[in-house]
Amino acid sequence: MIRHLAGIAFNLFGLFVLPFVVGFVCALFFEVSQVADTLPYLLAISGLVIGPSFIMLIFGVAWKSRRELQLLRQAGRSDATTVLATIHRHVSVVTPRGWAVFSTGILFVLLALGAKWADLSVVAVLALTVFYGVLGLSTFLSAFIVSSFEAQLKKRASVERQMVQAVILSGEVAEERFTFRRVPVPPLYFLLVEDHLPPRLATTSRYAVGAGARREELVVAGRLRRTPRGMYRLGPAHVYYQDALGFTRVSVASLATAELKVLPRFRSLQIIEPPRSKLEKPDILTRPHRFPTEDYFRFRDYQSGDDTRRIQWKLSMKAGQMQLRMPETKEISTKNVLLVLDSYLPSGRMLDDAVGVEEVLDKMVETWISLAKELVERGDRVTMVAAARTTKGELGVEVCQAQKGGHVRWQDLGARVVWQGRLELPALLAEAGLDSHGVIVSSRFQSPPPGGFDGQTLTWVYLPPDQALQGKDPTLLEALAGTPVNAFLWLFRLPFPVGSDENAFFAQLRIFRDQAGRLSARKRLREVAKRDGGRVLSQLRARGDTVYVLHAGQGTHKLVGLQSGGKVYAKPKGKAA
What we know:
This protein is of the alpha/beta class. It has four domains: about 1-140, no CATH class; about 160-265, C2 domain (Immunoglobulin-like), CATH 2.60.40; about 300-330, no CATH class; about 335-470 and about 535-565, Rossmann fold (3-Layer(aba) Sandwich). The chain is built from 15 helices and 20 strands. It has helices at about 1-30, 35, 40-75, 80-90, 95-115, 120-155, 315-320, 350-355, 360-380, 405-415, 425-430, 465-470, 475-480, 485-490, 505-540, and strands spanning about 160-165, 165-170, 175-180, 190-195, 205-210, 220-225, 230-235, 235-245, 250-255, 260-265, 270, 300, 325, 335-340, 380-390, 395-400, 435-440, 460, 545-550, 555-565. The chain has an eight-stranded mixed beta sheet with strand order 11-20-19-18-17-14-15-16, sandwiched between helices. Strand 15 and strand 16 (about 395-400) form a beta hairpin. Helix 1 (about 1-30) packs across helix 4 and helix 1 (about 1-30) runs parallel beside helix 5. The radius of gyration is 35 Å and the shape is elongated.
């Protein structure tokens, strides 16, 4: 609330009082007798320039705020904080470029009075006159522009947003499109659409249209720089009117939403079997092999149409007629497998830092769905369990019965998996039955929870976090530029296209802060992984379960058997204990 009050006070009064305050302070330190002689004329001229702008700003803010506050009261959301935030948003119309012009005018006022250089005062007056003229005109017209925009949206105008394609595989190309239909754009103004997309997409949506938006339909599009696994809700985008000089920007709406779902890819799995099991049978992930058997077979006389490859020639010669070996019986062993994805991190600093290690979860998800495919094709009954967000953004336990032909459902669930600090492993393993085998894909940074398992056996597929985070992180400059080459070029050119607001000093500080925060989070988690990764792996082995170590590659993930478990948690149904 204090921030909103300070912003309103400065934008509403400080902009108009500051030039006079600067002049008064200069009079205390500099000799300004020549200027003091013409003080009445200066005040009159200043009043003619600044006064109308101030009145127009008051009128524009009051008109727009009144309309929005009426809607808030009808929706029951009108409290003190909301009212101040609404007024603050409507009064904050000056862009970074406008602040630069205003600061330039104030600076030249200081120089002109301090150095007694009359020519500098001309520059100061010109800069401030242009600034206040554009500010007053924009704030006055903004009330009518906003009304016209809202009225057209209720009739036939629209701003639509869509992703092409809306569902893709990780790494594929996705294009964002905005369609403008009969959107009113007054002369000497541009309609801007802006939205800062999630950091993983490494893209900022920004489009500008002129009077062409009045036509029947105008389409603008841009490609996303990155498309990693995940479920992304884009928008609502911010819509502004900006004057041709770029001094002021009037917010009219926040609309145009879209969704992008990036599915994880299936990877080839190379499973290296662990040492011989203590349970007189292989663990759940070991691929079955058929070996020669010493069983006796039954034989019968050959009949027309039988498979000649099954003729037993030695016995046929002894019997004097063709003898056919009966097909040997094959025991079909189908297992119930509970395939769990462990995405738990403790709430607090560690979970907050997880924004820097999303790729670790990506590798776990790829292994998780690839294991489901491997087990289903083998003939096992697989139940996939994970903590994921629903389409409404709520976090919960998701259960999916993996069946042949349902690969897209597995990928859809994998796209919605997130790091979370609410659902620990016991909540996921609760889906197990007495006759099920548990398989947990994990990359824990902390000790596994104590307690048993309701099924028969438990297998861990563990991705050591220190190995998953191998490789050198980019420097801050490389992270901002995208590549080392661009980082080198930034030493000789502006970081963003000429005229972009991001080139402003404070905008650069905000971008630097965000990127530095992500790199700092990665560094902190690297230290935790290096310190605790080996300890967690030792604790998993001490449980007596089967343990595989996951080595994630670019196209193939390798599961290296570390130990075979000798621990049985429960007997299958129908068997004596």
